[in-house]
Amino acid sequence: MENFIYLDNAATTPVRKEVLEEIMPYFSVEYGNASTSYSLGKNARKAIENARKQVAESLGAESEEIYFTAGGSESDNWALRGVAAALKDKGKHIITTNIEHHAILHTAEYLQKEKNFDVTYIPVDEYGLVNPNDIEKAIRSDTILISVMAANNEVGTIEPIAEIGKIARKHGVIFHTDAVQAVGHVPINVEDMSIDILSLSGHKLGAPKGVGAIYIRKGTKIFPLIYGGAQEQKKRAGTENVAGIVGLGKAVELAQSEMSSEIERLTSLRNRLIEGVLKSVPNAKLNGHPEKRLPGNCNISFDFIEGESILMFLDMNGIMASSGSACTSGSLNPSHVLLALGLKHEQAHGSVRMTLGRETTAEEIDFVVEKIPQIVERLRNMSPLYEDYLKSSKI
After folding, report:
1. Distance between CA atoms of 22 and 4, rounded to whole angstroms?
2. What backbone phi and psi angles, to 5 degrees, belong to 359?
3. What is the pLDDT of residues 261-279, one digit of tens each?
4. Which amino acids are annotated catalytic?
5. H/E element holding 133?
6. Distance between CA 172 and CA 293 in Å, rounded?
């Protein structure tokens, strides 16, 4: 497909050219199983360990603290279920927030229903920010884990992870962060932020789909999620996805080296998009924190119309965006994140998420800013809700 504008980088990103070049040999020439002892296998093992070092250095971690997984959802499951299994005799209380990705929320629900854990869901403010004081107040003598995402996948709000990490450390509670949307896009340092466990995913930053990693601080008590082999230091069974792992390492390394310039560039383009839309479309609202947000995230609610209808017309104009998390885009239910921010159901249904990436240009943003007012006006002219609003405004 050619001549389209891609604004759904929070859902997935294209594999970077440099990454693709790096991984190609591991599909054909260097196809060895990393667990074998002959040269082909040793070459694969060396490539994996190099990637492990690349990921560790980007997080301020040690190589042996990095374990490769199939993606962010597996890493999130491992964090919650692994700690729960390891520390169930110490306590069965977990703290998280009500805006987490479903990989966290559904796992927490599983632990509640099937393993009799008690989970406290901390609410957020109108911008999607969690108050660290609320986290501390929720800690009990039987609290074994706190899990708060580094940045929200829908509205882009960046959470006060370092403050929460210090609170968890002070109380002797393991602290996990789902950093799938943050790693490679904003600075993350596990030491500075007192993080014990961290989840990340490759396809959010230019690596292939189907590969991720989890950071587990030395000494952290956690049981494996997958059994059946001695791979990943006997903590994650399964033949290693060598090509994917190599791609993840390269993508993380590239993202780290370019982070400062990309933050500046994307923040400028993001603000251009937000200001352009809000200036030209009445009854529209930015969702998420106006400043403490991911550089490439723009989430806007449009009153009186459905977000899905906007997406359809955007697609007809060659613009690809989303109405929220790609994992739940097929659901008819309004976003749990937007509802947690205090939006009404109809406002949540009228939201569109546009997320920028490395290939996004100023010309593309200007085209989108030109098209959105036209699309919104057309849809509102067909909306009985908008007609009622106009009538009430004249009274």
Report:
1. 27
2. -95, 0
3. 999 999 999 999 999 999 9
4. 327
5. helix 132-138
6. 29
